[in-house]
Structure formats: C-alpha cells, structure tokens
Write a sequence for this structure.
C-alpha cells in the first residue's frame, strides 16, 4: 500500500472515531528534526477537529510545522542536587559544592543525565583521587563526534560517560541493542545475536542495569531500555566498524527468522510467541532483504501466512503488506512461482480485508494466473474462492463470482483441499442469502459449519456459526438465530478474533434494532434502542481498529437508523451518508445498495422525492446485479414516486 493511502486510511479512522467519541487529542512523542518534513505531510491528513500535541527536544520542529510552542523547563537546581545526592549516596556532593554546580550546568539539570552520572559517581568515588571536579573535566573532553548525538549536550555527556566506563565486550553488547526494536529485550536473544553464553550476556546486562543504562523487565531474563538510551545505542551502532554492523545484522535476522519459522512449524497455534517478537521480526525481515537472503524471507512469511494464519487472526493486514511484498520479490528472485502465487493470494486477502477491492482483485488474479500456469490445483482452489468472494462483496459481476466459486469447489475437491471446499460452501451460502434463497443458504452454512468443526478450525467455525445464525433469524427463528450468534461471539473472544467479535456484536445490535422497530414509541423501545446503540457503537470501534471498512460502514448505517427511530433524522442522514462514502471508496456494492436504499426512504419521507429517486435507482441497479429480491421492492417504490411526481 502506498504511503499516501496509509495516511488517508489513518485520517479516515480518526474522522470516524471523532464522530463516535467526540473530540480527540493525538499525541506524537519525541519528534526529531529529521522527521519534520514527514510530520508536515502527516499533519495535513489529520482532520481539523482533531487536536495534536507533539513533544520534541528540538525547537526547530515546532517552527517547521508552525506550532504553538510550550517550553518545559528542567528541574530546579536544588532538586537536581538532591537527586544527585540520593542516587550517588556520595559525601562529595556536599563537600564539592562549586563542582556540583558546574556538573549540573553541564548536564542541563536533566533528570536522566543526572541519574546516569550519579550512578557513575557511586561507582567511581572509591577510586583514589576521584573528585567531581575531575569528573567535570572528563565530561568536557569527550570527542565532538560522540557529542553530535541529537538533543541536549548534557544528555550526550552523561551517556558517553556511562558508555566510557564499560569494558570492550560490554560496549559491543550495548551497541548491538541499537538493532533491536525499542521493546523488551531478552537476554537469550542478545546472547544468540552477539554469540555469547546466556549467563555471560545476562551478567553484562545486569551490569548495564546497575549503571542505569538498562532497567529490569517484567520477567526473568528480560530488560528494558529508555527510549533515549536506545537512540544512543543506535547512534553508536551506526558508527561502529562495517564488519561489526554486517555481522550483527546477519546474526539478528538469522535468529529471528529461524525462531519464527520454527514456531510456525512446531507450534502453529502459539500466536503469542509471534506477538512478542513481531517488532524485531519486522526489522529482521528488512535486514534479510538488505542482505539478499531471499530464502529466509520466503520461509518466514510462508510460515506466518500459511501455517499460522498469523496476520489474518490478529487482524494485522497493514503490517502484513510489507512482509508479503518482500516475500513476492524474494519468490521471484528464487524463481519459485508456487510461492509467488501464494504470496500474491495472501496480499490480495490483506487488501480485501482493508476494503481495497480493486487491489485485492488484481493480486488474486495474478495468483490465479500463476497457479493455472504451473498446474497447482491445490492453491488455485484457494485463489479462485477468494477472488469469487471478493467479487461477491463488490456486487458488480455476480455471474462471474458464482462461476468462480463453483470452479473453486470443483478444483478443491479434485485436489483434496478440504479447507477451501469448506470455505466455498460458506461463501456460496452468502451468495444465496444475498439473492434471497435463505433455505439453501442455511443448508450451505450448516455444511460449512460441520466441516470447520471436523477440521478443528475455530476461526471458520465462528464465522459459519454466525452466518447460520443470521440466516436462521431471517427464516423466522429469531431466538435460535440470536443464540447461534452469541455462541459465535464467544468463540471470537476465546481465540482473540477481534474482527469476528466486532461483527457478532454488530449483528446482535442489529437484532435489537429490529426488535425496537416492531415496538411502539415508549420506554420499552427506548431501552432496547439504547442497548442496540451500545452494541453497534462497540462494533464500529472494533471494525475501525481491525481495518474492516465494510463492516464499519454497515454498523454506521445501523447507527443512522437508530438516530431516525429516536427522532434525530438529520444525524441519521449524516451517518448513512458516511456509510455510503465508505462503500464508494472501498467498492462495496452491497453496502452501497443498502445505504442508498435507506437514504432514499428517509429523503422520500421528508418530501425530497427527486433526491430519493436518485438513490433508489442506483440502489435498484445494484440489487439487480446481485439478483436480490429487494430489487423488485425498489422498482415498485420507484414507480410509486414517479406517479407521485407526475
């Protein structure tokens, strides 16, 4: 996905969140001068009603973006003196008053710098001849290139003093931290990357804690690093010998890609293992690409996407894209057309789940073409099913979508790809549900549900159970349908499927909305509408968080309908127009048809018949493309409005 598209998606998310939650404050922490240009571009995408607070250590940043600036002053000198004395526990702080004053001036009265130097005083004061005055001279002797570290000179001095006190191996390990993401650091990983024994590495990391260059983590063998010290380790690593940088990067990406591949192979349900390493794994894949290790990239991404379905289950479509694009390039370099087809298919799924229908179709079609060319029926079935399902969502070419799904089912049976066969039953169920053939839809969903249970696929089980609940409700058994959806919601929560959780919560809100519509205005209806609003608002939030644009639009449409029932037609129309906008951007034909139908009904009630007719005509065309029975109802409404306008 292009950078501008990512920014536009983020802006849309902010806009929708502000519409649902009220005014927002966006905090962007620790911005440097090098980021100023990107920040200007980023801010241009932020909606005007979202306030922005930026923290920086460089005044030029505020000037570059034209911000109102508030200076946060450092500690008072007396407080700094007290901090120095309490951390160092040195009598010299009381006896060398003038030198302490000079020291604190050098450090800029910055708490982190004062704490680091205080730790050094605690260690060094036992050395014969040590004095704070001599320490000040040492701070002023550091080489200019070391002090080119961005930020206050006092921070650089304190970091350099602490680093200077480390031995050669300790310095090398501290520098190596610069290659890691700024999250928890594990001794076992650092030992592997630096080719050190676990006990030796942990001993060195413990010493870095003692001198305040690291801190303890939350678990055994785990450590944390202050963001500024992490930047300093990056700074030092970038200035280390080329051979050291190459060696460390090579060890780093080899460790993380091999561990991730092993987890995917041996513990494919252990998503938490990948969660913990994902920031570093992302950097490792980039390092592997820079080193031209195409096999490491291909093996790792294959494991994450195929064996584990990590990105799909975790709803990390945006994060998956950089992995998959590198994997496609790696497969091409390796001449591995089978994997090139697989990775294109998964990238298509990422685009589809983000509501980028055209991009999804392009990648699915590439995947289909390659699979056909190499005669890989097993993967061809999957790509055909995904392409058919995406075209079904687009609702522009239903005959092609149906033909692709039937072909996918045939190919899946021929290649014994039972997972895809089950998915085909579910997607064909959705097709029949859209066309009004609810009994056939229920039969297909039930078959897909049974198959997913036999396969032990909890994600597919939850999806099919929810769909069966919806069609059961449409067939008239509301209580059984609601029970199925609640059971499906429990599965989503159990396996951490946030997208499924949002969908089922929204469906339950829709059931409540339908109940409210059957009631006369009064306290009972108000209570049910309140509960419906709570469910659907939660569903909107979860859809936005997981990038499910189509569902977010559907739930916003239902919120609009709630507003209308509550007597707030103006707000209802706004919500419906927002839903229509999402449908237009994403290419969601069914959502567009539904939103236009609802808008047409509201506008007709207000006497805006020409506007209503426009929406009904567009809606009717879409419903006809989907072979939906609603098309006849829309056509009757259009005829009635035309008669009225004569």
């Amino acid at each position: 996905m292009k950078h501008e598209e990512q920014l536009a998606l983020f802006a849309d998310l902010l806009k929708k969140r502000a519409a649902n939650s009220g005014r927002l404050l966006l905090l962007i922490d620790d911005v440097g001068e090098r980021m100023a240009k990107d920040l200007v571009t980023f801010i241009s995408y932020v909606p005007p009603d979202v306030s922005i607070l930026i923290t920086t250590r460089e005044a030029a940043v505020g000037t570059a973006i034209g911000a109102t600036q508030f200076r946060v002053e450092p500690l008072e000198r007396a407080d700094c003196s007290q901090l120095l004395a309490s951390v160092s526990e040195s009598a010299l702080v009381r006896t060398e008053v003038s030198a302490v004053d000079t020291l604190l001036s050098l450090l800029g009265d910055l708490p982190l710098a004062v704490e680091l130097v205080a730790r050094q005083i605690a260690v060094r004061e036992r050395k014969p001849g040590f004095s704070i005055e001599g320490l000040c001279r040492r701070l002023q002797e550091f080489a200019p290139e070391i002090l080119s570290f961005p930020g206050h000179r006092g921070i650089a001095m304190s970091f350099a003093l602490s680093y200077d006190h480390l031995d050669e191996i300790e310095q090398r390990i501290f520098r190596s931290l610069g290659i890691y993401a700024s999250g928890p650091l594990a001794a076992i990983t650092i030992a592997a990357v630096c080719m050190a024994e676990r006990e030796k590495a942990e001993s060195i990391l413990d010493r870095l804690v003692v001198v305040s260059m690291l801190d303890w983590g939350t678990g055994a063998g785990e450590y944390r690093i202050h963001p500024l010290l992490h930047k300093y380790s990056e700074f030092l690593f970038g200035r280390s010998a080329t051979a050291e940088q190459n060696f460390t990067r090579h060890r780093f990406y080899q460790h993380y890609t091999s561990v991730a591949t092993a987890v995917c192979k041996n513990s494919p349900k252990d998503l938490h293992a990948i969660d913990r390493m994902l920031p570093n794994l992302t950097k490792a894949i980039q390092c592997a690409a820079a080193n031209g290790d195409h096999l490491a990239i291909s093996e790792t991404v294959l494991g994450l996407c195929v064996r584990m379905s990590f990105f799909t289950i975790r709803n990390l479509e945006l994060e998956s894209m950089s992995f998959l694009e590198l994997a496609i390039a790696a497969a091409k370099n390796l001449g591995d057309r089978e994997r090139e087809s697989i990775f294109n298919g998964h990238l298509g799924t990422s685009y589809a789940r983000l509501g980028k229908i055209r991009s999804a179709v392009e990648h699915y079609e590439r995947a289909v073409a390659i699979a056909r060319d190499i005669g890989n029926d097993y993967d061809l079935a999957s790509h055909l099913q995904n392409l058919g399902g995406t075209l079904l969502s687009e609702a522009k070419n239903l005959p092609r979508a149906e033909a692709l799904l039937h072909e996918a089912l045939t190919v899946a049976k021929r290649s014994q790809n039972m997972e895809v066969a089950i998915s085909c039953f579910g997607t064909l169920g959705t097709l029949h549900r859209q066309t009004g053939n609810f009994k056939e839809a229920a039969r297909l969903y039930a078959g897909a549900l049974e198959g997913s249970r036999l396969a032990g696929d909890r994600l597919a089980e939850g999806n099919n159970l929810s769909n069966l609940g919806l069609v059961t409700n449409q067939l008239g058994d509301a209580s059984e349908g609601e029970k199925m959806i609640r059971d499906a919601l429990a599965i989503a929560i159990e396996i951490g499927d946030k997208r499924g959780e949002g969908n089922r919560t929204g469906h339950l809100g829709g059931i409540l909305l339908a109940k409210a519509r059957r009631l006369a205005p009064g306290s009972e209806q108000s209570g049910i509408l309140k509960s419906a609003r709570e469910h659907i608002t939660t569903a909107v939030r979860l859809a936005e968080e997981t990038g499910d644009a189509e569902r977010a639009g559907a739930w916003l449409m239902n919120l609009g309908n709630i507003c209308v029932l509550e007597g707030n037609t103006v707000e209802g129309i706004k919500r419906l127009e927002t839903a229509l906008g999402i449908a237009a951007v994403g290419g969601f034909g069914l959502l567009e048809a539904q939103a236009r139908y609802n808008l047409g009904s509201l506008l007709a009630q207000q006497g805006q018949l020409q506007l209503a007719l426009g929406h009904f005509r567009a809606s009717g065309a879409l419903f006809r493309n989907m072979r939906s029975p609603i098309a006849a109802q829309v056509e009757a409404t259009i005829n009635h409005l035309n008669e009225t306008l004569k």
Q: What stands out?
A: The chain has a mean pLDDT of 88.
